[in-house]
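Chapter summary example.
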Amino acid sequence: MSSLFFSQVKWMTVDDALKAQETKPKKILIYFYADWCEPCKTMEKNTYNHPQIAIYLNENYYPVKFNAEGNQVFTVYGRIFSNPDFVTGKRKNPMHDFSKFMNVNAVPSVVFLDEQNMPITIINGNLTAKEIDPYLRIIATNDYKKFKSRAEWENSLRKMKSNIK
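The structure predicted for these 165 residues follows.
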């Protein structure tokens, strides 16, 4: 059988992605989720488990899966990020400092970072494989840099066809 049927996203931590970035620069996709979030579970099952999406992500990005309400502690941008109000066993916790820093106020959300770890854009909501595919391609190829306005960016995404059948 083809490896296409067994493809999975090779999720990393924020720390691992930043370390990998030092030796082989790539864009970073950060998928913000929460354990209680049903749309997040749907997106993981149907979008990130889609073979074409998994392969494209693994080849063109450092994919990070980040619990938007978790208790991870790490340093990036010269700052320590944590979730000081995290309570173990609580169903819903406050947003992690890193989630807030990245302007994530709902899950699921996806933040794209460039090769210098600077934010490119954020996408909110449960996206299908067909919906996320154009974003992945336009950002990985740097085509997003040619747009001079948000309107140009959005217009281009509307016209762009997904490679997902």
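To summarize the output: The mean pLDDT is 91.
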